[in-house]
């Protein structure tokens, strides 16, 4: 496989983590991994992975569309978390993931590896967008309500599970 970013550079096998083989470019340090290998490797890991580290990483993220190193088709970009701006490239034809330089380590450090295969699906992307929308709405109301928002938020959580929630909502709207 050739690196699709660096002309003339072949991808060489490398152990990204003990037991996880990827094909890496020696020029840009990007790496291509078969999703199947990644899923299998994750299953072999202890249930409680080492705690997330806040170490700052040197991370590249190529913004434009990337071609798959295996089949040269265009890859699809996927969000990993709403807290991380980097997006991973996935080839649906080969079930192959591309990590730009530092992306693998950044995802490991953020404690996002275990859920990664689930995130790299259309359902996973929808869930991320929905969480992002809720977070933005919450931030809007936190600002609009101002002081006491925490109490309102706590009350809202309590109300959600209350068997008489409809009556309580009607009561709150009484003049
Ligand atoms: Zn390269
Ligand atoms: Zn491909």
Comma- or semicolon-separated keywords:
175 residues; binds zinc ion; 2 domains; 6 helices; alpha+beta
Secondary-structure topology with pairs:
Layout: E1 11-17, E2 20-25, E3 31-34, H1 35-44, E4 76-81, E5 84-91, E6 96-99, H2 103-109, H3 116-119, H4 122-145, H5 149-160, H6 165-172
Antiparallel strand pairs: 1-2, 2-3, 3-6, 4-5, 5-6
Residues 68, 70-71, 73, 91, 93-94, 96 line the site of one zinc ion.
Q: Quaternary state, please?
A: single chain
**Estimated radius of gyration:** 21 Å
Give the SSE order as H and E letters.
Answer: EEEHEEEHHHHH
The biggest sheet, with number of strands, parallel, antiparallel or mixed sense and barrel status, is: 6 strands, antiparallel
- Summarize the amount of helix as a percent range: 25-40%
Helical segment count: 6
Low-confidence stretches: none
Helix and strand content put the structural class at alpha+beta
Q: What is the residue-mean pLDDT, rounded to a whole number?
A: 90
Instruction: Name the shape in a single word.
Output: elongated
